[in-house]
Amino acid sequence: MPFKTSKKIVVYTVLVIAIGVLLTLLYYLPVGKDTTPAVIVEQKILETEKPFRIEIVYPTIPGVDDFNAKAISIVEAQLKEFKKTSLETDSLRRITMTAEEYGNFNLNSPYYLSITYEKGIVSHKIVSMVFRIEHYTGGAHGNRAFIALNYHIADKKEITLADVFPPSTRGYLQKISDYCIQDLIKQIRELTGEAYEAYIDEVWIREGASPKTENFSNFLFDDKSITFYFPPYQIAPYALGDFKVVMGRD
To answer: 41-159 has which CATH code?
Structure first.
């Protein structure tokens, strides 16, 4: 009888140890942490009181306060600068326009700000986002810009382009530059057709996509590709709009 009891105790002990080992492995295996999507909760700001029209949608992740603070900081900075510039322009217009002229301007051309975002990988470990900003503050036309927020949740730090490529990847900036230049030239040729030479000087493209870190600061990525964003004026005139280049990570 004591033998049977001892045997049961040994079996029970082994079972407890096995379960403990299994739970430990499950905890430390990266699969669940890396691939399980993080929950995105969209926040919205809408202001329609003249002279503004503001429409903003930006992401937050419950429990990831540091990422949320950075996202909010981007939005608040854009909103503050937009209102400041718009109100300065509006004050000047009130002085230089007649009441009728100002009324027509304010009716037909409200100052607007739109912020949306695109996402790449979104897991419990890494989040890749690019904010798309469109605004009109009273000039000849509106404008567009991009701001990337690539963030390592576990390390609580932003991810740079150098972090995306392994340390052994030598000359990655040159490879990115060569790929983007050729892709951009192809895109613009397809967009402009026979008018290509009239619209673009390839020196502009080659400078705006030269192998400098700042030229490729606006990017998002996932497991298979990395996408680079080029706002108006970086590689082409405003009339041609903005561009993006998708490059495989192989």
So the answer is: 3.30.565.40
